[in-house]
Design brief:
With 329 residues, this protein is mainly α. It has a single domain, classed as ABC transporter involved in vitamin B12 uptake, BtuC. It has 14 helices and no strands. The longest helix has 33 residues. The two termini are 15 Å apart.
């Protein structure tokens, strides 16, 4: 088991990685900006070049912050689902929450809505998918993790079918934007304050329950025996995961593998203590998405790639490696 000192060291390294990823996102692009000018622009000192100020503050900074918040939210939602369901395959995508958010967002686009309209539809879709999954999985009272996951897979497939129907009904001039959004796109990230607020609130709500989550990870019966209000805790975490997923999907579109892979990798490094794991996955997930988005807008510049494509290219081999590693142990 990793020692507490090692876990704190990993957290420190993740903090440095987060700062480095944000600095890279602000400095790298079709117009290279020296780090000294980036710092001057952020601090508002006289050393800032007036030509680079709009690039750093108006274009790159909001996109980088949005990417960090979305990556952190997806990783946090994945970690919560995995510990609650005691299943390493649980994440917002497998359980259909992200699919529901996608249906809501595309429905808003089909109706010609934008901004808060898309955000509201996305959250309602995520919440509806979550209630549907857990309502159907409960059935006659024989609630099990396996039944829950199977129900989530079916609901996710149904959401995929609805997405295909929406695309077939959408006007031609809107299809390109919808498809790009479905593959993950941070280029249209607007106001970043809401998604950052959701990230802070999600951590603030879940961290006080870290001890209860540690107990729940050992089994619902043991947690109940030790005084944990398991039904209430589950409802709270389900709601937080839905809100986190809806906020991320609304801002960045459908971005896969972060909620599945990042908690695995961080857990290997620092263990399963939720007091350390939850902030660690936020830092790791945010850094990964910021770096992936920086690659997406620079690797074949001036063409911008969907960031979800790069996260999938990173996530697939990482997931296969984890599967192979688990088969050998």
């Amino acid at each position: 088991m990793p020692t507490r000192r090692r876990a704190l060291l990993v957290l420190t390294l993740l903090l440095l990685l987060a700062a480095a990823s944000l600095a890279t996102a602000l400095a790298v692009g079709s117009l290279a900006v020296p780090l000294s000018e980036v710092a001057a622009a952020l601090l508002g000192t006289q050393g800032a070049d007036s030509g680079t100020l709009p690039v750093v503050l108006d274009l790159r900074l909001p996109r980088a912050l949005a990417g960090f918040a979305c990556g952190g939210l997806l990783a946090l939602a994945g970690a919560l689902m995995q510990v609650l369901l005691r299943n390493p395959l649980a994440d917002p995508y497998v359980l259909g929450i992200s699919g529901g958010a996608g249906v809501g967002a595309l429905s808003a686009m089909l109706l010609g809505l934008a901004g808060l309209g898309i955000a509201g539809f996305s959250f309602v879709g995520a919440l509806a998918a979550m209630l549907l999954v857990f309502g159907l999985a409960h059935g006659d009272g024989s609630w099990t993790q396996t039944r829950l996951l199977l129900t989530g897979v079916v609901v996710a497939a149904g959401c995929g079918a609805v997405v295909a129907l929406i695309l077939s009904l959408a006007p031609e001039q809107r299809i390109h934007g919808m498809l790009f959004w479905l593959m993950g796109d941070l280029s249209q990230a607007g106001e970043v304050a809401p998604v950052l607020v959701v990230l802070v609130l999600a951590l603030a709500v879940t961290l006080p329950f870290a001890r209860e989550l540690n107990l729940l990870a050992r089994g619902a019966e043991q947690a109940l025996a030790l005084g944990v209000a398991v039904p209430t805790l589950r409802r709270l975490i389900y709601f937080v995961a839905a809100l986190a997923t809806a906020a991320a999907v609304t801002t960045a579109g459908s971005i896969g593998f972060i909620g599945l892979i990042v908690p695995h990798l961080v857990r290997l490094a620092i263990g399963n203590d939720q007091r350390l794991l939850l902030p660690a996955v936020v830092l790791a997930g945010g850094s990964l998405l910021v770096l992936a988005d920086t690659l997406a807008r620079t690797v074949v510049a001036p063409i911008q790639l969907p960031v979800g494509v790069l996260t999938a290219l990173i996530g697939v081999p990482a997931f296969l490696y984890l599967l192979g590693r688990g088969a050998k142990t």
